[in-house]
Amino acid sequence: LLQLVESGGGSVQAGGSLRLSCAASGYVDNTYYMAWFRQAPGKEREAVASIKVSGDRTYYDDFVKGRFTISRDNVKNTLSLQMNSLKPDDTAKYYCTAGMQRTIRDFGINNQSAYTFWGQGTQVTVSS
């Protein structure tokens, strides 16, 4: 069983930066994908960025390209999301998640159904 715990959320003004971290306890296979999703009040959960644990594939949704960077430290077993040039529309609860390659292949890298393990989330609030 893989457990994921997020940290690093908070409140920031537009244009500012935050770095989210996700600590994974348990074995994460190199074929796994890890990702950040977010959910704003009244909206569906949406994919933000994903990375294959082996490091040879990443995905970013269009609204964060050029502003957010996802990275994985396989030694520390952590996942990070560096968020720069934050906008009020980035306000949401951010979730760390992990999924197996076969479910990513079946459902798609930006589909929450592809991911099996989820953290509790960390709140990010961006004020204008």
Characterise the protein shown here:
- By secondary structure, the protein is mainly beta.
- Helices cover 5% and strands 48% of the residues.
- It contains 1 helix and 11 strands; from the N terminus they run βββββββββαββ.
- The strands form 2 sheets. Strands 2, 4, 5, 6, 9, 10 and 11 form a 7-stranded mixed β-sheet that branches.
- Strand 7 and strand 8 (78-83) form a beta hairpin.
- The radius of gyration is 14 Å and the shape is globular.
- The model has no long low-confidence stretch (mean pLDDT 95).
Would you summarize the structure shown here?
The protein is mainly beta and 128 residues long. The protein contains one helix and eleven strands; from the N terminus they run E-E-E-E-E-E-E-E-E-H-E-E.
Fraction of helical residues? under 10%
Mean pLDDT: 95
Q: Rg to the nearest angstrom? A: 14 Å
Looking at the structure, what is the overall shape? Answer: globular
What is the SS-derived class?
mainly beta
Low-confidence residue ranges? none
Strand proportion: over 45%
* Count of helical stretches: 1
Q: What's the count of strands?
A: 11
Order of helices and strands: EEEEEEEEEHEE
Largest sheet: 7 strands, mixed
Q: Termini, distance in Å?
A: 40 Å
